[in-house]
Design goal:
By secondary structure, this protein is α/β, with parallel strands linked by helices. The chain has a domain of about 170 residues: Vaccinia Virus protein VP39 (Rossmann fold, 3-Layer(aba) Sandwich), CATH 3.40.50.150. Strands 3-2-1-4-5-7-6 form a seven-stranded mixed sheet, with helices on both faces. Strand 4, helix 5 and strand 5 form a beta-alpha-beta unit. Helix 6 packs antiparallel against helix 7. The longest helix is centred in the last third of the chain and has 21 residues.
Amino acid sequence: MWEIDKVDNYSELIEPSFYHKIMRNHLYIKETDQKIYELILEKARLSSKRLNICEIGGGSGALTELIVEIENIDLIIVEIDISFYKLLKEKFNKNDNVTILNKDISQYDFDNPVDIFYSMGVHHHIAKGKLTFEYLSKIKNNLAEEGIYILGDEFIPAYKNDKERTLNLIIWFSHIIENARLQGHQFLAIEEARTLYYDILGIEDYKNSLEDLEKELSDSELIIEDIHKEGPKENIGGLYIITTKKSYEK
């Protein structure tokens, strides 16, 4: 039986370097990382100035490895988990244009406006309600006037109640777990099964729907500019890339 006590850091559940290894086999993640990279690369190429960019929750640095190759940017990585922070320091501390901070994004104010915030697989680790509002509001308050937040994460279909949410979770995770099993990625299948268990219990994993996200963004005065999906054609969930910007409606 898995331990079900509340955890403060994701690294209490899985060792960072092991997480990096097994998650490279997760269905759709590589494609989603590539798309986020391409979006930021295009912005940097079109910009007449050097861009201030922030990665929220650098994790094991898989997406960061792509972003650091982009020219014309200064990158700040904000990672709350001390174990993942140390791994990121080992990987990227020699990059002159990279600053790595062990901070809580919901409590951190930047010296300069941020042109692009981006995150991958972070939103569903933040408890819904007050904590989600705080982190999204902090992003909005630190965004440059024409800045954007690129949010990449897993979302499930809309649901009307907890029972429907649980059913949607089981269907989505079953899709991911079965693919991992068929591809011979046994450790990934086990990790995703544990994640499903924790999500149903509401411990450290809080996946929701795009409809929920739209309301969370609106409450924080952010609006959706574009949505891109990586995932199955069936309406069972997927990895989505949501580009957002400040709302100036009064």
